[in-house]
Amino acid sequence: MLISSIASFGKYWIFISQVFRAPDKWKEFFKRLVFEINKLGVDSIPLVIIISLFIGAVITIQMTINIVSPLIPSYSTGLATREILLLEFSSTMMCLILAGKVGSNIASEIGTMRVTEQIDAMDIMGLNSANFIVMPKIVGFVLFVPVLCILSMFVGLVGGWIIAEFTTMISVEDYVFGIQSFFNEWYVWYGIIKTLFFAFIIASVSSYYGYFVKGGALEVGQASTKAVVSSSILILFFDVVLTKLLLQ
User: Cα–Cα distance between 180 and 185 in angstroms, integer?
Assistant: First the structure.
């Protein structure tokens, strides 16, 4: 097991070294980059909006229910909602969700290309298939994921505002004052920095599993599952590491 893990680790970095080389045709690279940004990033916007809206609302409800002490100011609900969204949900939790959507998409797409011998055909023609297929996906997703992170933060706060506006659990004034109180701009940058690392993990690990698929349709499905699981574990691991480094 240990030897297999070490071998996979080395194989992964050799694969990455093949991916990040100068493209043969920059025009084709930028064309594919725009396509991947649209497919992996823009198409994820509806999912991010829906999940963030409901999570923001749920966090606000839970905070309101649990903060019952008269010694705790009522605006603490808005403050706690903001901190949870900025520090953890809109970066780590959102990327865990995107690992399922984007990661499985990348792994299954590249895996299908492998089992249908499209990648072999590129290699025979002298193309760097890893660079041609994978690099636009990684670069495109890494470039766009901060947009998804910021969008998630904003929509999550809107979800909490909706609870304040249309229920009697907390007043809008207290909620808005809470999300404005003791604001630390670094928390926004902290969330964005984390998503950059997580996006690279999702795109590169999923591409790795898809690129080295052997077999047929069954193996493509297995590779997709492994990609999501491995990406999720690595995201959680690096969440701990980055939190220690960035917030100490």
Answer: 11
